[in-house]
Amino acid sequence: MSGNSKRSRWIIRAEAAYRQFFVRYCCDRQSSLQVAEFPKSGGSWISGMVSDLLQIDFPRNRFPASRSSLFHGHVLVRFPVKNALVVWRDPRDVMVSWYFHSIVGNSHVQPSFVASCRRRSGIVDAGNVKSNMQKFVRWCFEDPYSPAFTWSDFYDYWSCQDCDVLKYEDVLQNPVDALLSLEFLSCFSGDREASVRRVVEAHSFAKQSGRRSGVEVKGAFLRKGVAGDWVNYFDSDALATLMSYAGDRMNGLGYT
């Protein structure tokens, strides 16, 4: 699995700009697909499975080249392609995973990005996750940085779009049924269930990380692969802060 830790920020930005150009003017809009997520919601994992099922290119951390492609990203824009999928995850788990990504860091993120996030958030003792969580949540909602929008902004845009929906938790619990529920796979030729089972096995957490789900490596991009881990890192103050920013939206998605 490739990452961004050793790639120039200019290259990353140029690639993002080119992707926007490519999806508007070069791709096959009928066969291409957009997958949108707020960071750390499982979108990369799900995109890998879907691209394998559809047998289309997934240009991750590189410039797109195929006219039939899956375009994954953290954006507030609906690309002009026929099908789109939005991936939701419990915002409490999102905050925990985003903390480990942006404040602790891993092999997929540039050290300069981590340093910038620590400076902007005012967090100096990165290892004290639980004691820092309230401050981190407040920073994410009051001064968002890369992406420059909040989880609530993402919800407000994508909850109104006409697209397929998956919840990370549903995919974890029963990935075969979750993927089979996607409307844009209804025209899939061949044995859909057998193909989905094959892809799910190939993209399992164990296959991708070399660890069984639930075994944590704090400095890894694929850290733990579970739902509900937020209970280990949220105290009552952090939870109250998150609910004050996003409680109604969380309830709307069933995250209570």
TrEMBL record:
Q: Report whether Metal-binding shows up as a keyword of the record.
A: no
Domain of life here?
Bacteria
Q: Where are the transmembrane segments?
A: none
Tell me one GO molecular function of this protein: sulfotransferase activity
A Pfam family for this UniProt protein?
Sulfotransfer_1
Keywords of the record: Transferase
Domain Sulfotransferase: where? 85-253
Record's keyword annotation contains Transcription regulation: no
Where is coiled-coil annotated?
none
Q: Its family? A: Belongs to the sulfotransferase 1 family.
Name of the featured protein = Sulfotransferase
- Organism, by scientific name, is Rhodopirellula sallentina SM41
